[in-house]
TrEMBL record:
Keywords: Hydrolase. This is MBL fold metallo-hydrolase. It comes from Vreelandella populi. Pfam families: Lactamase_B_2. GO terms for molecular function: hydrolase activity; RNA endonuclease activity. InterPro entries: MBL (IPR050698), Metallo-B-lactamas (IPR001279), RibonucZ/Hydroxyglut_hydro (IPR036866). Residues 15-176 form the Metallo-beta-lactamase domain. PANTHER family: CLEAVAGE AND POLYADENYLATION SPECIFICITY FACTOR FAMILY MEMBER (PTHR11203), INTEGRATOR COMPLEX SUBUNIT 11 (PTHR11203:SF37).
Length: 362
């Protein structure tokens, strides 16, 4: 028994996710990431030959490349994630939490704590291959399920070696609330928990607030799911928010991010809380927007905790820089478990990097 892992995209930088796992003469693509930056070409799908694709969640850097794949390629995702597929794209249901077989491989999924309908993926080959997708331990709404043991863990390291607790982020955002603010956020992820927090803060401070209807609709969807798919004690908070009317002239606005720029929101300061594109970095440098992170990915100590939980012998930090000084920091955090190769081969649970001259997919 053997398995091969090819990280087509997502290693060495924050970039589209696309990983091929080959086992039992079948190939499964994990995620089909689209460009994070407008106009950027997707190159990982060129010449690709796989038997199925599994999508972890509905953010563009994980699902946006589906349009590059043959429309007949079997695609698996949860029903909520399927709503973000290109119109008419065929798909098959992936459990929100459970086990199924895809292309002859045992696939286990669980809640990743990051977004509505999002899951991590565990493949039952070679002692377990675990892919976290995007994952977080700190969500107030989305639970994180402890995965089964895995020999190799491909983990969301989007935050690099950053390790600030979520409470510190919330405290920092609180400092800004007494001025007119608009928060552009991805509507299926942190938007939901930011909505609850902002509503409670607005009430406590006597501030006016409006929340994008699509974010309200997603909270309603979350409330309609089985209770085990959201954190306990969140139902009352969600119900209270849904019953709360929007202010007609709010000083705080939570908006679905549609590439908003500061110029689109006169009278408001734009406060971003996630990944900044180069053009937004320029806006930040010019003082046109504000930025304060709201944790939705694994911070460094949680990434190590997850690797420990699943007994991973090898850990690949994804979606982050892997040159020094970051590389040395990862070595300190993960020791001999750190793996940074693009192509990996597992044979009887032993991991080998594939030499450079044999890296193309056969
Ligand atoms: Zn995501």
């Amino acid at each position: 028994m053997s398995a091969r892992i090819d990280i087509l995209s997502g290693l060495g930088d924050k970039g589209p996710a696309a990983i091929v796992v080959e086992a039992n003469v079948k190939r499964i693509l994990l995620d089909a990431g689209g460009a994070l930056h407008p106009g950027e070409a997707i190159t990982w799908a060129r010449g690709l030959d796989v038997d199925a694709v599994i999508i972890s969640h509905d953010h563009v850097d994980h699902i946006g490349g589906v349009s590059e794949l043959p429309p007949t390629l079997p695609l698996y995702c949860t029903p909520l994630v399927a709503q973000a597929l290109p119109k008419g794209r065929a798909w098959q249901p992936l459990p929100e939490r459970g086990t199924c077989r895809i292309a002859g491989i045992e696939v286990t999924t669980g809640q990743a704590g990051h977004s509505l309908g999002g899951v991590w993926i565990h493949l039952g080959v070679e002692g377990g291959i675990f892919y976290s997708g995007d994952a977080c331990f700190e969500s107030q709404l989305f639970p994180f399920d402890t995965p089964p043991p895995a020999n190799i863990a491909l983990l969301d390291a989007s935050y690099g070696t950053y390790d600030q607790p979520q409470q510190a982020c919330v405290d920092a955002i609180s400092e800004h609330l007494n001025r007119p603010l608009a928060f552009p956020v991805p509507e299926s992820g942190r938007a939901l928990e930011m909505a609850l927090w902002l509503a409670e803060e607005a009430d406590a401070r006597g501030l006016s607030l409006a929340i994008d209807p699509i974010i309200r609709a997603n909270l309603k969807t979350l409330l309609a799911l089985p209770a085990t798919l959201r954190r306990s004690h969140s139902d009352e908070r969600i119900e209270a928010l849904l019953a709360r009317p929007d202010a007609s002239q709010p000083s705080l606005k939570l908006i679905s991010d549609r590439d908003d720029t500061a110029a689109m929101w006169p009278g408001f300061h734009l406060l971003h809380t996630g990944y900044l594109t180069p053009s937004r970095c320029a806006e930040l440098s010019a003082g046109d927007i504000l930025w304060q992170r709201w944790n939705v990915h694994l911070r460094a100590s949680h990434l190590v905790e997850l690797a420990d939980q699943i007994n991973a012998e090898h850990v690949v930090p994804l979606f982050t820089h892997l040159s020094d000084p970051a590389l040395s920091a990862w070595r300190t955090l993960l020791g001999a478990r750190l793996a940074t190769e693009k192509a990996l081969f597992l044979n009887n649970h032993v991991l080998n990097a594939i030499p450079l001259n044999n890296r193309s997919l056969a």
